[in-house]
Design goal:
The complex is a heterodimer of chains A (117) and B (113).
Chain A: E1 5-7, E2 10-13, E3 19-24, E4 31-37, E5 44-50, E6 53-56, E7 65-68, E8 75-79, E9 88-95, E10 107-108, E11 112-116
Parallel strand pairs in A: 2-11
Antiparallel strand pairs in A: 1-3, 3-8, 4-5, 4-9, 5-6, 7-8, 9-10, 9-11
Chain B: E1 3-5, E2 10-14, E3 19-21, E4 24-26, E5 32-38, E6 44-50, E7 56-58, E8 64-68, E9 73-78, E10 87-94, E11 102-103, E12 107-112
Parallel strand pairs in B: 2-12
Antiparallel strand pairs in B: 1-4, 3-9, 5-6, 5-10, 7-8, 8-9, 10-11, 10-12
Classes of the chains: A mainly beta (117), B mainly beta (113).
């Protein structure tokens, strides 16, 4: 595909359940980012990868949140024991170059809207 | 720590008039600055960036932004607004360490016909 693909588009889950959100970046993009966006707010950084290596996870709110990118392409953000406060839009983005390519713009997917009831 | 401020929640302009969406930033060292636009039910789309060089940066859809180091600002501008420019606009900054892109809270631009 031409862009960043995220699935599912919408996810409704009950409190206490685990959820897995998937991101398929643009082919060949080195860096992959996860953001969370609450209604009326800007995207909040969660974590990012260069290839398969998780470079920064300082934005993950707590240890219920984890992410992986085992083969350096598709990534999964997992939230365990979901809580109502986890409800938000979760956005994935990829960029072409890592490291010195810090001026590379991010290309965002359409996001996964998570609702925890 | 990096931060971005967008002081206006909403900007209203009439079609054909010039528009400005304000952004100020705080970062260690030289900043990398970006503007993104978000249309309803869509992902964020890159508009333009400032890395080095000319303080006036031109981007997509006729938008431009002016970098002002002394005022630590990066305001988004367009000489003549279109109704189709109505959307949510985000300013973002990254420092030279090049980790996360930090976003402002966004400004809703409403262009009336």
């Amino acid at each position: 595909g031409a862009g960043v693909s995220q699935s599912p588009r919408y996810k409704v889950t009950k409190r206490g359940q685990d959820v897995a959100l998937r991101c398929d970046p643009i082919s060949g993009h080195v860096s992959l980012y996860w953001y969370r966006q609450a209604l009326g707010q800007g995207p909040e950084f969660l974590t990012y990868f260069n290839y398969e290596a998780q470079q920064d996870k300082s934005g993950l709110p707590n240890d219920r949140f984890s992410a992986e990118r085992p083969e350096g392409s598709i990534s999964t953000l997992t939230i365990q024991r979901t809580e109502q406060r986890d409800s938000a839009m979760y956005r994935c983005a990829s960029s072409l170059r890592a490291g010195q390519g810090r001026n590379s713009p991010l290309h965002f997917g359409n996001g996964t809207r998570l609702t925890v009831t | 720590a990096q931060s971005v401020a967008q002081p206006e929640d909403q900007v209203n302009v009439a079609e054909g008039n010039p528009l400005t969406v304000k952004c100020t930033y705080s970062v260690s060292g030289n900043p990398y600055l970006f503007w993104y636009v978000q249309y309803p039910n869509r992902g964020l789309q890159f508009l333009l960036k400032y890395i080095t060089g000319d303080n006036l940066v031109k981007g997509s859809y006729g938008f431009e932004a002016e970098f002002n180091k002394s005022q630590t600002s990066f305001h988004l501008k367009k000489p003549s607004a279109l109704v189709s420019d109505s959307a949510l606009y985000f300013c973002a900054v990254r420092d030279q360490a090049g980790t996360a892109l930090i976003f402002g809270k966004g400004t809703t631009l409403s262009v009336s016909s």
